[in-house]
Amino acid sequence: MTPDNHVDLQPAARDNLWMHFTRQGAFATSDVPIITRGEGAYVWDAQGRRYLDALSGLYVTQIGHGRRELGEAAAKQMAELEFFPIWTFAHPRAIELAERLASFAPGDLNRVFFTSGGGEAVESAWKLAKQYYKMTGRPNKHKVISRRISYHGTTQGALSITGMPAYKSVFEPLVPSTVHVPNTNFYRAPEHGDDPVAFGRWAAAQIEDAIIAEGPDSVAAVFLEPVQNAGGCFTPPPGYFQLVREICDRHDVLLVSDEVICGFGRLGEWFGAIKYGFQPDIITCAKGLTSGYAPMGAMIASDRLMEPFLEGNNTFLHGYTFGGHPVCAAVAMANLDIFEREGILDHVRQNEGPFRDTMNKLSDLDIVGDVRGAGYFLALELVKDKSTKETFNDDEAERLLRGFLSKELYDSGIYCRTDDRGDPIVQLSPPLICDQSHFDEIEFILRDVLTRAQKML
Ligand code: PLP
Known about the structure:
Helix content: 25-40%
Largest sheet: 7 strands, mixed
CATH superfamily of the largest domain: Type I PLP-dependent aspartate aminotransferase-like (Major domain)
Number of helices: 15
Strand order of the largest sheet: 4-10-9-8-7-5-6
Structural class: alpha/beta
CATH topology of the largest domain: Aspartate Aminotransferase, domain 2
Number of strands: 15
Bound molecules: pyridoxal-5'-phosphate
CATH architecture of the largest domain: 3-Layer(aba) Sandwich
Order of helices and strands: HEEEHHHEHEHHEHEHEHEEHHHEEHEEEH
Strand content: 15-25%
Distance between the termini: 37 Å
């Protein structure tokens, strides 16, 4: 592979490009990593080095990199109708995609509201919940309950729902009326640590307690990911979502399944709600909808939630210029064609066990306290003392993750995420086309780097 000659991009990368969630100052003394192309499960940098993309970009690239078919779908759509809004008008691709998503979504989630990304979908869901209750005679229902350490986006509403105080404090005051309850981190369960079913009952009861404490007349919605990403792939205990559904019904509260990561095959189904057998009132999604070949998100709402908007002059007073963009919708359709043609959901279902088994091998390392997750979505929690589950203090986590692991993993040819928004973890979310050879490569590199990490501690 010949190196791509992009070294001259370094000054502009430093001086002009404001990267997201990035310690920009770190690049005063080191180069900005510049990724120039991708194919399948791999990407290449400007020096021509190859990396296994074990994070699908950012939980996005379900069908892998470099699929010309999606570019061709975009070009065809641009030649036909490059843009038209879906404000009062419609166009074929948005209609077709809405119909297709409605057919994938569980139950009567038939109403598809397009956005440009995940945070906007979350924002839209909260606004819909508020306006719906205002229009149906319960105008005080406006609060949202979500879980600690959860991430739901960065717009001010979505950030309020996000359960990470450190991400929020610099932007306070945010949108009031959000309440945070315990998540489903079974590894560190404060109660019932030996009984997942009892733990699930306890965690669901926290939601009901919060609704009652706030006053059911004031609570509009509960926002939950099927598997919570931040903190490291917290799966739902058995029965948890069924109990949450009952609680929401009891108190007339909407259940929003935030599937920005979990949708589109990440867990082996179109949506995580299908995997875990619960019926949400709203699904929010993005990322894998287009596999990242174009930016797009959606809120998929139940028929019941649209009913009041079908009367008289009523209008959902909300929208985005680029919602339902024809090119993005055409790309999403082509992406979903590939899913169906190549049996991507089946592939994940057949290979999630081997992926898990291969990562479980790393449990023999002292630093690996827990391997958890579902589908192609796993996290390794790193611990200081495996027998006591003692975690690292802030300084140690900083040295371990940013001082060592991030760089060493990257230099060893793997792109994944080390994260300490909760306890320190390594997150893995490879493209859904990956197979045993990729799992082995991930395990091989992680074993080497984590073994060296143990020694430097
Ligand atoms: N919700 C969840 C669960 C997410 O993981 C994310 C992003 O990772 C978002 C919302 C926000 O999506 P976006 O970055 O597209 O705005």
